Amino acid sequence: MDLESIRSSYRRYAKHYDRIFGPVFAPGRKLAMQVLDIEGGQRVLEVGVGTGLSLPFYPEDSRVVGIDVSPEMLAKARERVENQGLDQVEALLEMDAEALTFEDSSFDAVVAMYVASVVPNPDKLVDEMRRVCRPGGDIVIINHFASRNPLLRGLEKGLRPLSRMLGFRPDMDLDSLPEMEDFRRLDVRNANIFGYWKLVHYCNGPLSEEQATAEVA
To answer: What is the helix, strand, coil percentage profile of the chain, to 5?
Structure first.
């Protein structure tokens, strides 16, 4: 995967993305909002905002910044913001997820939906998400991860050579996402009825007293 192949793929997808992927990804978008439980005034970064399908789900009193590498997808997102009067959207910017231009600790929460298997280097994606998220903030990643079923896993590996054309890696393993003492997975849950996509919820930094108590319980 490289940036040019990603832009090329989503240039093709942009016109039909909402119709094809809107209903399929809707449960994950709604689940992400439930998990984040965004409070009034909080500033949230959505990495890979695409056509902005998730933007109407953010609370009206939040502040949302969305980034994407595809100008065609962002154009659709800006149309959505204007047509639906989504005043909670602070900005929609063309930006590389692996080289964010925001200052450290700029956001209360960071979410990346259906992005981790698209970017060239998922570890850099996570590093940048952590950098711009305040200590103790929430980081949520929703993605398809390689199946544990041997037959399906074999099919996914077989599709790997088509990654550039598809615009994503079909065999990304959940274990390829980091888990460290200061970056703890709070939860992994199915993001749709079949469990094909999963939501991974992290705490950026040491667990708060409330989070630690909940984990023990």
So the answer is: 40, 25, 35
